[in-house]
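Example for tutorial group B:
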């Protein structure tokens, strides 16, 4: 039973972080401080979680503003290549949410990017899939926040030279079915 509540807490933390990233900070504060539907109520751990989320929210706001200020990719109409990189679930604790099989998938996408997209990056987009797994603990940052698989993929790609504005991160899917659903939504949006 404790595992189920931990998973639900992780989902609540994800939703709060996602809403904060989308600029809906008031909603994320309500989700974390309302305690009425959360199993841990108003205990010290919940207060610590809320404080951590508020700090994360400030970081998300700053990142969101940076994206807006830079005018990063708002027109996806030129995209002709969509590289889809599935997460694949967590490995061991030492891999920091980026196991060898996910690294291999990312490296294959990097090879494709170098051959087909490096000269015309506006014609390519990369979909980094997966928030994590509901069947295993998620990797965590030093501050305790969930480190999404798609974030690890995106970080690897950016470090290898893929422009951040070409990367679409999936922070929604927690299983293979949801990975397929997110992929379909992105493909439909790109061809619309």
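The residue assignment follows.
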């Amino acid at each position: 039973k404790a595992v189920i509540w931990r998973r639900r807490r992780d989902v609540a933390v994800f939703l709060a972080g996602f809403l904060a990233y989308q600029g809906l900070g008031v909603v994320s504060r309500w989700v974390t401080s309302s305690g009425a539907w959360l199993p841990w109520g108003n205990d010290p751990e919940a207060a610590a979680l809320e404080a951590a989320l508020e700090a994360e929210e400030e970081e998300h706001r700053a990142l969101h503003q940076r994206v807006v200020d830079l005018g990063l990719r708002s027109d996806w109409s030129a995209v002709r290549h969509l590289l889809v990189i599935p997460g694949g679930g967590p490995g061991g604790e030492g891999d920091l949410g980026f196991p060898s099989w996910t690294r291999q998938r990312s490296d294959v996408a990097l090879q494709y990017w170098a051959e087909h997209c490096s000269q015309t990056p506006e014609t390519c987009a990369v979909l980094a899939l997966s928030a994590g797994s509901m069947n295993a603990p998620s990797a965590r940052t030093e501050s305790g926040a969930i480190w999404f698989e798609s974030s690890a993929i995106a970080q690897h790609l950016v470090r290898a030279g893929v422009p951040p504005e070409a990367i679409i991160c999936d922070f929604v899917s927690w299983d293979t079915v949801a990975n397929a659903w997110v992929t379909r939504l992105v493909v439909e949006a790109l061809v619309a």
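The first strand starts at residue 81 and ends at 85. Compare this with the pattern of hydrophobic and polar residues in the output above.
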